[in-house]
Hints:
Blueprint: H1 10-42, H2 45-73, H3 76-93, H4 97-124
Helix pairs in contact: 1-2, 1-4, 2-3, 3-4
Amino acid sequence: MCTIGQPLPTQDVGKAIVCFQYVERIKSELIIAAKLVEYIAELKGDEQAGASKLFRWYLESLLGEVSLAFSIVGRDDFKLAGEKLASAIDKAKEGLFEEAIRLISEAISAVASSGQWSMQILKDGGFL
Length: 128
């Protein structure tokens, strides 16, 4: 951390901006995923099977986004979110939708931690 009056390194600010962008996008997509799985749990038979398959594809695409964020930003919170998301995909395949919701919620919390970090960096730098 820098003391008051000292500028933050440019790379920290740049990383925080990129991180903040990923956090906001991924968090929104995870919230959508949590809502979708609630709806899928209410379906029956073939409707649920088809919706579940599409949902897993959505989660796999989102997992790619989380992996990209981890590669670019390097925050372990994104790695943890990816692990939670991968587990949620497995639970959705098994039809354990409540477990999938729980894991998605944990992924949201992990991503939000990086959001707090990036907000603090931007606040310390006088950008917020």
